[in-house]
Write a structure and sequence with these properties.
With 214 residues, the protein is α/β, with parallel strands linked by helices. It contains 6 helices and 9 strands, in the order βαβαβαβαβαββαββ. The structure holds glycinamide ribonucleotide.
């Protein structure tokens, strides 16, 4: 049977990519077909190469504008025949035409309990606000900033007087579990986006909770 093919898009360290390579790639009929990076110096590219996964670099500075860059990125993903695009620390906005093209087939991992603290520096935003509980969200990507239908969330209770390095560690540990679980659930057809009424917010229907606990 044809495997379910993932593309993972990255910008930096790639610890989430590593979690996907270690716990999803080559198992349960799921393959990482390619990795695309927004920066040539992303450590994530080394991780992909070590795993023998094809890579591509799509730096905005190599193209006349974002739409042109995203067109090249879309061609790369289509050439690799991908079923799902996973933004795993991809730190750039994507062109609306690109987002529409992969509508319902692109997810993102975000380091907060959305809709709280969307956008960049989400962990710092949460700590500055003084929340006692934060977390991780995996959601479909729509044309807004971190506004798409939510697939999975996990909460993290913060220690008294949390320091940023410790919270980042806690968030990463949760991401490395939650993102692979969400991918497996989507790959086996357990996630459906509810058709929204015009103007209504789209939501996800789950076959069961991705962490299997409820
Ligand atoms: C992750 O914490 C991810 O949630 C975050 O970037 C980090 C990438 O780490 N993404 C965002 O903030 C997107 N808004 P990694 O490169 O080690 O996977």
């Amino acid at each position: 049977m044809r495997p379910f093919r993932l593309a993972v898009l990255v910008s930096g360290e790639g610890s989430n990519l590593q979690a996907i390579l270690d716990s999803v790639h080559g198992r349960e009929g799921i393959d990482v077909a390619c990795v695309g990076a927004s920066r040539p110096d992303a450590r994530a590219l080394e991780r992909a190469r070590e795993a023998g996964v094809p890579t591509g670099v799509f730096a905005a500075s190599d193209h006349s504008d974002r739409a042109v860059r995203d067109e090249a990125l879309a061609e790369f993903l289509i050439a690799h025949d991908v079923d799902l695009v996973v933004l795993a620390g991809f730190m750039e906005l994507l062109d609306p035409a690109f987002v529409r093209r992969f509508d319902g087939r692109m997810i993102n991992v975000h380091p907060s309990l959305l809709p709280a603290f969307p956008g960049v520096r989400a962990i710092e935003q949460a700590l500055d606000y003084g929340v006692r509980v934060t977390g991780v969200t995996v959601h479909f990507v729509d044309e807004g900033v971190d506004t798409g239908a939510i697939v999975a969330q996990a909460a993290i209770e913060l220690p008294y007087a949390p320091d940023i390095a410790r919270v980042e560690e806690m968030v990463h540990a949760v991401e490395h579990r939650l993102l692979p679980e969400a991918i497996r659930l989507i790959a086996r057809g357990g996630v459906r986006i509810e058709p929204a009424e015009p103007g209504a917010r789209r939501r996800v229907n789950l076959e069961r909770e991705p962490n299997g606990e409820r």
